[in-house]
Input
Amino acid sequence: MVLTFPVTGTGKVEWGLDENLVAELATAYPGVDVAAEAAKARAWCVANRTRQKTSRGMPRFLNTWMDRAQNNAGRLAGPVQGNLLQRPNSIGVVSEEMRSKFGEKGARTVLNGIAWMDSMKRKLGVAEEPAEEELKNVTEGS
Output
């Protein structure tokens, strides 16, 4: 067993995540750190005792968890070290003008939105250049 999860229902009180399922999930979701996400899923199960799954429902629960983790990877990136507005991104460093116009939180929101648009354009195969035109429109107030 790689990890045990508390479960509800008659019979077992714990369900064991085995190495075979971990390998299967890792193959199905190559963009996901399966071990880290499994630990998060376990923490969720512990914290949400009234919404725990049955032993029979655990494989489906973990499959759904990994699917969401992979699909939300670009939008829900972990915390960034340092000031995000000082870091370069696919478009460049956020200008002082943008920071003064939108404030730190607003500039971060704009930056994240533009980065998301770029990633979606790449996934759809329609992006040749980063979303610099969108950034220009935002900073000029269009």
Remarks:
- DSSP finds five helices and two strands in the chain.
